Amino acid sequence: MMPPGRILLPPPPLLLALLPLGLAVPCSPQPNVTRFVCAEPTLSTFPAGLPPTTLAVSVEFTALAVLLPTALAGLPQLQELHLSSNRLATLPEALLRPAPALRVLDLTDNLLADLPAGVFAGTGSLRHLVLRGNRLRELRPAWFRHLPQLQWLDLAANALAEVPPEVFHPLRSLRSLDLSHNRLESLAPNALAGLRALERLDLEGNRLGTLPPAAFAPAPALRLLFLQDNELRELPAGIFGPLRRLRVLDLARNRLRTLELPPRPPGSALDLDVSGNPWACECPLLAPLRRAAPRLAATRDTLCASPASHRGREVSAAGPIPTLPVPIP
């Protein structure tokens, strides 16, 4: 109760304006929550005091540039960590050890040029790992030694110039691998060794000029294969032979003149994009197209470069090529 004679005056307007700024902490954790989300552009320090019940943390589009090794301490139940679109240039090797239940780690669009060798040593439950849009120049085999349950690996839009032999060998559960928009000029014959569960492989937008004959043999479960926007001039005979389950093959905008299509099991069809290549429209090309009867995507850009009588014509008009997929015995 206010004493008699006293009048409680409101604080000056300037003080009212300054109080929230001085006391508020960007994205303050709340007790007893399971998901913490922060996208405050001014945030530069990883939030402390997250409750041990936290299952997911999302700190994205902030000014976060440094993570302490203890940033995740006290979060034993953490399953998802989203750190995309920050300014992280490095990670502490012990960062993830307090979170053994982690299943999803998203580090998209940071400044990572390298990672500590043992950064994933304590994350055997990890299912999704996204490193897209960083500055990685090489892949270290030590990163993947402790990820037997990883199913999704996104390494797109980095600066990778090669895939070391057997670097992915421990990833026996991997189903999707994205290496698009890097600087790959070739693949080692056993670059995909160990990836027998792989269903989707994206190599779009690299500098691939050739591929080894057995490039895809270690991944017979492939269903989706993206090779568009490379510099492929020819493909080895039988390169697609092991891919009996292939359903989508994108070879658009390369420098191919001839093509040997994958063998088709009975009752299956292949969605094929071969647009933007200088096709030699003689029988060696048209015959396999007729046999496989693919659904040609972007037919207006699928043009003959030779012979002279067919130059500039659509491949689909250069011979009696069916327009709908049919079963091949």
Give short descriptive properties of this protein.
single chain; mainly beta; twelve-stranded parallel β-sheet; two-stranded parallel ribbon; 2 helices; 14 strands; elongated
Please, could you describe this protein's structure?
This protein is mainly beta and 329 residues long. It has a domain at 275-329. The chain contains 2 helices and 14 strands. A 12-stranded parallel beta sheet has the order 1-2-3-4-5-6-7-8-9-10-11-13, with no helix packed on it. Strands 12-14 form a two-stranded parallel sheet. The model is unreliable at 1-24 and 320-329 (pLDDT under 50). This is LRRCT domain-containing protein.
Put the structure in a nutshell.
It holds the Pfam family LRR_1. With 329 residues, the protein is mainly β.
